[in-house]
Write a structure and sequence with these properties.
single chain; alpha+beta; Alpha-Beta Plaits; 3-stranded antiparallel β-sheet
Length: about 180
C-alpha cells in the first residue's frame, strides 16, 4: 500500500500498520521498520495480498549449465531433487488450489513443479518453477540451491555450472600525432 511492502500487523480506522519487507533487504525479509499507511491508499492503489485465499506463490530459480555438460543428467537431477524437496507441499497446494477454483473463475493451472530448458549464447539455462508457501520463499531457494550444489559435486564433473566470463583482448596499437601549422597557435 502506498509503495510500502510488508506484513499487516494492525488495522485501525485511519491507518494500517505494516512491518516492512524488502527495501534494502533482499527477498521477503523484514527490514525492522514499522510503517503506518493511511487507509485511503486502499482505494487509490492495488493491494497485493500473499496470504489471503491462496497462501502460496509461484517462484522460479534458474541454473546455468555449461555447454558440453550432460544436460540430460542435469535435468534428471533437478527433477529428482525438486520432487524430493517439494513433496511435502504437493497435497496442501492441490487442496488450496481446488478451493481457489471453486471460489473464483480461474483457469485450472498446473501446480506441479515444472523444469524448462533454454539454450542461450553462453550456456544451457534450466528454470525450475514451483509453488511455495509465501513465508518460506527465501528458505526454499536456499534449500534448493544447497541441494543442487551437493548434487553437482557428486556428478564427477558431468554437470558443470556456467558463469559469465569476459576475456579482454589487447587491441592493435594506434599511433596518433598532431602537427601544428605555421602561423597558428
Amino acid at each position: 500500500m502506498g509503495g510500502i511492502k510488508g506484513d499487516v500487523i494492525d488495522i485501525s480506522v485511519l491507518r494500517t500498520t505494516v512491518m516492512e519487507i524488502r527495501e534494502w533487504v533482499k527477498a521477503d525479509l523484514y527490514t525492522g521498520r514499522i510503517v503506518k499507511v493511511a487507509n485511503s491508499f486502499v482505494f487509490k492503489e492495488p493491494v497485493y495480498n500473499y496470504s489471503g485465499d491462496f497462501p502460496f506463490l509461484w517462484d522460479e530459480i534458474t541454473l546455468p549449465v555449461k555447454y558440453g555438460s550432460d544436460w540430460r543428467l542435469a535435468r534428471e537431477m533437478l527433477r529428482n531433487l525438486v520432487d524430493e524437496v517439494l513433496a511435502g507441499y504437493a497435497e496442501q497446494v492441490k487442496d488450496s488450489w481446488k478451493e481457489m477454483l471453486h471460489r473464483y473463475r480461474l483457469e485450472d493451472a498446473d501446480v506441479k513443479p515444472m523444469i524448462t530448458l533454454r539454450a542461450t549464447d553462453n550456456w544451457i539455462e534450466f528454470t525450475v518453477r514451483y509453488v511455495v508457501d509465501y513465508r518460506k520463499r527465501r528458505w526454499m531457494q536456499n534449500h534448493l540451491f544447497t541441494r543442487i550444489l551437493e548434487e553437482v559435486d557428486k556428478s564427477d564433473d558431468r554437470i558443470r555450472l556456467a558463469s559469465a566470463t569476459f576475456e579482454l583482448v589487447p587491441g592493435s596499437e594506434l599511433d596518433v600525432s598532431i602537427s601544428r601549422r605555421k602561423g597558428r597557435s
